[in-house]
Write a structure and sequence with these properties.
The chain is of the alpha+beta class. Helices cover 27% and strands 20% of the residues. The protein is built from 6 helices and 9 strands; from the N terminus they run αββββαβαββαβααβ.
Length: 244
């Protein structure tokens, strides 16, 4: 058996410039909107070169783990299609995924956030904490509650946490959001359908006692008290009983 001779990869330089010069001979048209400009990193082309390095297991030269290159063109990682957005307040370049944190931009965010909150509040059904619907929710949610992602089970918890972290003269929130809850449930039909896939074609139709199985599953799930999960939603706004 003849031992194979290692052949080192041949380096080839691709004349990318001539190709790009041909396809881009008329330039790239950019219809820039207000607060936009061509990307400084890619000069508005939307392109950049990256490199995929690799090695070969039978390469006798072990001085470098990945000695070979495979360069290619990718989309510029600093812009969107060769265009960057500018902050409408300070005119600084925005990153692809983050907004500006200049004082005016942050102030505008606060205004927009307050407007969204007001819109949700206007649409929500207002409840007192003593209403049956509110009491049966089990949990409430508010960004003003500093623990448990804002979820709490009683207004005593909320008021105590608020008073511990605020001065008496601080403006108090008026409401918190209601929640909906989901508990563990198992469906007998779904289980039997899945488990009978490899049985003969009439096996599912011949299974008896489905109602009995469903009754057992319902009773078993009702014992799993700690699986109940709460989700905040904006259908109900419950007034905080500060006076109580």
């Amino acid at each position: 058996m003849t031992e194979s001779t290692f052949e080192k990869p041949v380096t080839v330089i691709i004349d990318a410039l001539s190709y790009l010069s041909e396809v881009l001979k008329n330039g790239l048209k950019k219809d820039l909107q207000k607060h936009q400009k061509p990307c400084d990193d890619c000069k508005g082309t939307g392109l950049e070169i990256t490199n995929q390095i690799y090695g070969m297991s039978d390469d006798p030269d072990k001085s470098k783990l990945f000695p070979y290159d495979n360069q290619y063109i990718i989309s510029c990682r600093h812009c969107h299609s060769g265009v960057v957005n500018l902050c409408e307040f300070c005119n600084e370049k925005l990153s692809r995924f983050n907004d500006c944190d200049c004082p005016d931009a942050l102030h505008e965010k606060d205004i927009q956030r307050a407007a969204r909150e007001q819109e949700l509040w206007d649409k929500a059904i207002k409840l007192e904490s003593s209403d049956d619907i509110a009491k049966k929710m089990g949990m409430y949610q508010s960004d003003d509650y500093p623990y448990n992602d804002g979820y709490f089970a009683s207004f005593d918890e909320f008021i105590e946490a608020w008073e511990d972290s605020h001065e008496p003269d601080d403006p108090k929130p008026i409401y918190v959001w209601g929640t909906r809850s989901i508990s563990l449930s198992l469906n007998a039909d779904d289980i039997l359908d899945r488990e009978s896939e490899d049985l003969h074609e009439d096996a599912l139709d011949n299974i008896e006692g489905k109602d009995e199985l469903q009754k057992f599953l319902d009773e078993w799930c009702s014992k799993q008290k700690w699986t109940t999960t709460y989700y905040g939603e904006n259908n109900y706004a419950i007034r905080i009983p500060w006076d109580n």
